[in-house]
Structure to design on (96 residues):
């Protein structure tokens, strides 16, 4: 899970995700999430925070009102790993 993914694996994993893209100049993926209001937004962040803690894998994120800019990478691997894509999928599931 914490092994660096190949470029090919990264492209395949990105294809399975809606709206995520590579960060330029850095081995990380990013997406901006937009919600109806602050409560919806912060509720989602709270659910994701609990999941992240369970996974021992944490997002870099910036919340401004009802938007959250999320960046995922695995610091210990200095790159992208399966954990980043797993957390991204869980974030998507928490939108439903
Ligand atoms: N979160 N995104 C991310 N990347 C890490 O390497 C990471 C983490 N959360 C916890 C964590 N590593 C721990 O394994 C270490 O800080 C002990």
């Amino acid at each position: 899970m914490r092994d660096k993914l190949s470029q090919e694996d990264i492209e395949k994993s990105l294809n399975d995700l809606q709206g995520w893209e590579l960060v330029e100049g850095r081995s990380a993926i990013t997406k901006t999430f937009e919600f109806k209001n602050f409560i919806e937004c912060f509720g989602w962040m709270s659910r994701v925070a609990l999941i992240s803690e369970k996974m021992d894998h944490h997002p870099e994120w910036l919340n401004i009102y009802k938007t959250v800019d999320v960046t995922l990478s695995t610091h210990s691997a200095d790159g992208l790993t399966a954990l980043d894509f797993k957390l991204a999928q869980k974030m998507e599931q928490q939108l439903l």
Q: What stands out?
A: Residues 56-58, 74-76 surround 7,8-dihydrobiopterin (CB under 6 Å). The mean pLDDT is 97. The longest strand covers residues 29-34. The two ends are 25 Å apart (CA to CA).
